[in-house]
Specification:
The protein is α+β, with helices and mostly antiparallel strands. Helix content is 19%, strand content 33%. The chain has five helices and 13 strands. Strands 5-6-7-10-9-8 form a six-stranded antiparallel beta sheet. A three-stranded mixed beta sheet has the order 4-3-11, with no helix packed on it. Strand 9 and strand 10 form a beta hairpin. The longest helix has 14 residues. The protein is elongated and about 65 Å long.
């Protein structure tokens, strides 16, 4: 391996291992050489070698199993969040659980309701086989009739998983997740639901599309208020689910379905 003086050692090592994985020299499910052996091979310290492996772990290319070593992961099913919808590249089954609770903390702030307002929480956990793929929580005021959605605003954040999220999604606490918070209002401006979607960062991406308008005279208008953020398309309470998992209106309480 030729060391690139411009790039850091950990990135150069990660590039080399990444290439070996892509070309099949290191096969899916196979165990990498031990960390001391790799450190000797690349002529670096063990901490530097571990930093390089951490880059590949964050990309979902390898996983470290305590007491056994580092292994090349089998390719993960990709998830794309676009236009208010979650689209996987494989069929998922969805487990739905409902809970009655009271508004507290930022729930009340985001829903614009007083503290302790009765809410219903819908918890969606999607799986592909035995592997969890996404976690979504949707909150709706219990006194709310089902009006139509008029506007949704989304905030997308990359952060580390919480212990609860890591346990539910069966991921490492060191893995970043894509956290999406969506607040939806009706035509009167009243917030009618708030949803939180958590996607493992090693298998998910968010797609945003901006629609440009042409003003008189042929000039393109790129002003921010003309940009169209991802909007919810489809029935309420289902916008964070894969398209094939939607139903026109889930029963309350909803049941497990495929």
């Amino acid at each position: 391996m030729v060391i690139d003086p411009v790039r850091s050692l950990r990135h150069t090592i990660a590039d080399d291992l990444r290439t070996q994985i892509a070309t099949g020299h290191l096969k899916a499910g196979g165990r990498l050489p031990s960390e001391p052996r790799l450190a000797t091979h690349y002529k670096v310290s063990t901490p530097t070698l571990r930093n390089a492996l951490a880059l590949l772990q964050a990309e979902g290319l390898i996983e470290k199993i305590h007491g056994k070593g580092n292994f090349v992961r089998h390719p993960l099913r990709r998830l794309t969040y676009a236009g208010g919808r979650l689209t996987p590249d494989a069929d998922l089954h969805i487990t739905i659980r409902t809970t009655s609770l009271r508004a507290r903390g930022d729930l009340g702030v985001l829903l614009k309701v007083p503290s302790r307002t009765p809410l219903t929480e819908f918890l969606y956990l999607t799986h592909q086989g035995e592997t969890p793929h996404s976690l979504a929580r949707l909150y709706v005021p219990r006194d709310l009739a089902p009006p139509g959605l008029a506007e949704s605003q989304e905030t997308v954040t990359a952060r580390l998983a919480t212990p609860e999220e890591a346990s539910a999604l069966q991921i490492s606490l060191t893995l970043a997740v894509l956290a999406i918070t969506r607040v939806s209002a009706d035509h009167t401006g009243r917030v009618i639901e708030m949803a939180r979607l958590v996607l493992p960062g090693d298998r998910a991406e968010a797609l945003f599309t901006t629609h440009h308008t042409i003003q008189e005279g042929g000039r393109k208008d790129d002003s921010p208020h003309r940009a169209s953020p991802p909007t919810v398309v489809g029935p309420r309470r289902e916008a964070l689910l894969p398209e094939h998992g939607r139903r026109q209106q889930p029963p309350v309480p909803p049941r497990r379905h495929h």
